[in-house]
């Protein structure tokens, strides 16, 4: 049974700003939201304004968990405070990005950077942990400032970074040669860049080798809820569909269906409000195309048969498999899929 545990302590910056650090251990989903909310409500009652959520111990999170997090982000913001997320594991970050929550949260590498943020100082870009396989040392959080990038590697050959001095090699800070994301490695082993999925191998002597991933990269798009802009995604979806192995004619049909889904979301969920934004994730994965559309507009209701029997998404369902889920924070998540026959 899933559970969530809080470990609380006060932390203080050099300038004297005090915040509460909450180390989270477990899962944040439908089975734990009540326990999570109970602790968060008590923190608000005690007058806590600045909260750092250390997510290193979070095993799993879903849309319900993200919804409750967004609720308390808004609650702390309303009290002229805030919540900052630190040490977010890659698998949790991917869920945040897939549902568009990474744009709504403040995510930093560690508690020290979180305190800088609360003090109004400029903070480093969003960073995530770089996990290693279970039989190898785990990577430490991404470094705030990237080191000098190594030459770009192209498989099957690997580019090597000169080894650091024998003493005190690790933790070792390097930059991914493909995307320049800073990686801080705690020991030798095999690691994956959470941004571009390139593989890094750290030797015991500090030598680094990088191998570019052959997997297709997802495409992320954020659009204002203006129906006329929906047609702009057709070329992206068409290209992704062809990359997944669909023939030209079929790829065109898929692109048109996704554009229709975007228009429907803009109209029915967001009310054609140009100030409202919805997010898309286009994933050409093997022989399947997956498109996820998330919004924070009006939650849509469907019959037990789902979107396929609804006039708003009937034309889309004729081309793609359509699944719908409501976002607890408000809005919808649509998952559109199609496999190459």
Describe the structure.
Strands 1-2-3-4-5 form a 5-stranded mixed β-sheet, with helices on both faces. A 5-stranded antiparallel β-sheet has the order 12-13-14-16-15, with helices on one face. It has a 4-stranded antiparallel β-sheet with strand order 6-11-10-9, with no helix packed on it. 39% of the residues are buried. The chain has 7 helices and 16 strands. The chain is 24% helix and 29% strand. With 341 residues, the chain is an alpha+beta fold. The chain is globular. It folds into 3 domains: 4-118, Transcription Regulator spoIIAA; 130-214, no CATH class; 219-339, Histidine kinase-like ATPase, C-terminal domain (Heat Shock Protein 90, 2-Layer Sandwich), CATH 3.30.565.10. The chain has helices at 33-45, 63-78, 90-98, 111-118, 234-243, 248-269, 314-317, and strands at 4-12, 18-28, 50-61, 82-86, 106-108, 159-161, 172-175, 182-185, 189-192, 199-202, 208-211, 219-224, 277-285, 288-295, 321-326, 332-339.
Into how many domains do the coordinates divide? 3
Strand order of the largest sheet: 1-2-3-4-5
As a percent range, the share of strand residues is 25-35%
Oligomer: single chain
Calculate the terminal CA-CA distance, rounded to whole Å.
39 Å
Mean pLDDT: 80
Element pattern in H and E: EEHEHEHEHEEEEEEEHHEEHEE
Task: Give the CA-based shape.
Answer: globular
- The value of Rg in angstroms is 22 Å
Structural class: alpha+beta
Write the CATH homologous superfamily of the largest domain: Histidine kinase-like ATPase, C-terminal domain
Number of contiguous helices: 7
Strand segment count: 16
């Amino acid at each position: 049974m899933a559970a969530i545990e809080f470990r609380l302590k006060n932390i203080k910056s050099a300038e004297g700003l005090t915040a509460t650090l909450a180390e989270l251990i477990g899962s944040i989903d439908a089975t734990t939201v009540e326990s999570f909310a109970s602790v968060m409500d008590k923190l608000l009652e005690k007058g806590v304004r600045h909260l750092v959520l250390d997510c290193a111990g979070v095993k799993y999170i879903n849309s319900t968990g993200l919804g409750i997090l967004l609720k308390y982000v808004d609650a702390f913001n309303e009290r002229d405070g805030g919540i900052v997320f630190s040490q977010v594991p890659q698998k949790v970050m991917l869920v945040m990005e897939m549902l568009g929550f990474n744009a709504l949260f403040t995510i930093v590498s560690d508690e020290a950077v979180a305190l800088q943020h609360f003090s109004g100082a400029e903070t480093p870009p969003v960073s995530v942990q770089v996990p290693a396989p279970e039989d190898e040392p785990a990577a430490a959080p991404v470094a705030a400032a990237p080191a000098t990038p190594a030459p770009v590697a192209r498989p099957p050959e690997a580019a090597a970074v000169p080894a650091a001095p024998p003493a005190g090699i690790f933790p070792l800070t390097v930059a991914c040669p493909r995307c320049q994301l800073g990686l801080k490695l705690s020991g030798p082993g095999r690691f994956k860049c959470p941004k571009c999925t390139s593989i890094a191998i750290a030797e015991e002597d500090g030598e680094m080798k990088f191998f570019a991933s052959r997997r297709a990269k997802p495409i992320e798009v954020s659009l204002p809820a203006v129906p006329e802009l929906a047609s702009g995604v057709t070329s992206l979806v068409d290209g992704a569909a062809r990359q997944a192995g669909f023939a030209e004619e079929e790829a065109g049909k898929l692109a048109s269906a996704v554009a229709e889904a975007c228009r429907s979301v803009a109209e029915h969920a967001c009310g054609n409000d140009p100030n409202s934004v919805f997010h898309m994730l286009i994933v050409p994965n093997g022989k399947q195309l997956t498109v996820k559309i998330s919004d924070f507009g009006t939650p849509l209701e469907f019959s037990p048969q789902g979107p396929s029997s609804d006039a708003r998404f009937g034309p889309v369902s004729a081309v793609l498999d359509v699944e719908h889920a409501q976002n607890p924070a408000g809005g919808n998540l649509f998952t559109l899929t199609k496999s190459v026959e």
